[in-house]
Amino acid sequence: MHISARVIASVMLITTMLLYSHSGLAQATLVEVYTPSATKQPRVMTLSGSVEARHNAQLASQESGLVQTLLVDAGDTVSKGDPLLKLDATLAELNLAQAKAGAQAATVSVNEAQRLLDEVAALSKKQSVAQTLIGERTAALANAKAEQIKQQALVALAQERLNRHTLYAPFTGVIGQRSVDMGEWVTPGDQLFTLVAESDLRIVVNVPQEYFPLLRSTPRLPVMVTPDINAAKPIKAEISRIVAVTDPSSRTFTAHIDLTDTMSVHAQFTPGMSAQADLLLSAQDGAVWIPKKAVKQHPDGGSSVFIANNNTAKRKIVTITASRPDYVAVTGLTGNESVITTGIELLKEGTQLQISARAGNLQ
Q: Which stretch is the leader sequence (predicted)?
C-alpha cells in the first residue's frame, strides 16, 4: 500500500510536468526569422517620380475673333512655326488695306513736297526768292515725311494684327489637348491648345528633406531610372537640378533628373508617365539589410525590430538609412541576429517563440 502511494505520487508529478510543458508550447508564438549579413554595399534610395517635358505650354490667341480654321487636333505632331488655328481675319485685312492706302497717300505727299522745294531751290539760283518761301517748303517736306513714317507704322501695326489671327506652334512637340472648336469666339488668354515637347524630357522626384545636404553637396549624383512599363530597361542618368524649397506638408524637396535624347529614352519614356528612380548614394560600411516587413513603425516616427534570442522576443531600436522595394538598410544591428519577420504586431518584450522557418544568411 505504501509502494502504491509512491507510484501514484510519481505519476502525478510526471503528469503535472507534461501538462506544464504542453501549456508552454501552446503559449509560444510561431514566427519566421531572417538572418541578415553586414556588408559594404552601395546605398540605394528608390523614389517614384513623373516624366515631364521641359517645354509644356498652354497656347492662347493674342487677338479676339471667331475660329475659322482648325489645322491640328490632339495627338498631332507639329514643328516650330507650324500654323495651328486661324481666326476670321476679314476686319484685320480691311484695316491693313486702309493702312496701306494711307501710306501710299503719304508717299505721294512726300514726293509733291519734295518737288515744290526743288522748284523753289532752282529759282533761288536764278532770281531772288524769299527765304520765307524756302522755309515753308522745307517744313512742308519734313511734315510730309513724318506723316509717311506714321502711315508706315500703321501698316506694320495692321500687318501684325493680321498675323496674330493665326496661332503658330512656338516649339516642336505634340498637341496634348485641343480646347476649342470651329465657330467659337475666343479672346486673348483663352486656352486653345496644350503643346508638349517630346524631347528634353526629365523626371521629377520628391526627395525626403534629410537627404538635402547630401544632394546639395554631391553635384550630378548618379541615378538609374526605369519607366513603369512592361519589359522596361533601366537607363543611367543623374540629378541635374534640385529645387531648394521644402514642401512643409510632405517635408520633401524637388529634384530634376534630365533624360538625354537617345533612342532608348524616346522608346520608353513619354511625358506624364510614372517612373522609378534609384539614387546611388555613397557606400555605407556595415549596412544591415532586412525585410521591410520586419520593421515596426512607432507613432513618434521611430522604428524597431524584434529578434529571437533563446526563443524569446527581444526588441531593438533601429534607424532606417536606405530603402529598396522590399528591403531596408538599418543601423542598430550587428548582422548576426535572427530578425523576426512575421507576427510582429503580436509581439512584446519577452514573448515566448517557436521558430517555424529561417531565411537569409544561414551559414
A: 1-28
Torsion, Cα 102 103 107 109, to 10 degrees, reads 30
Phi, psi of 295, rounded to the nearest 5 degrees: -90, 130
- Return the CATH class of domain 55-87+166-199: mainly beta
- Secondary structure (3-state) at 291: strand
CA atoms within 13 A on the CB side of 341: 20
Tell which wins on pLDDT, 104 or 125: 104
Instruction: Read off the pLDDT band of 283 (50, 70, 90).
Output: low
Farthest-apart Cα atoms in the chain, separation? 175
Neighbouring-strand partners of residue 317: 304
pLDDT interval class at 39 (50, 70, 90): low
pTM across the whole model: 0.61
Correct CATH for 89-164 of 1.25.40, 1.10.287, 3.30.1890, 3.40.1130: 1.10.287
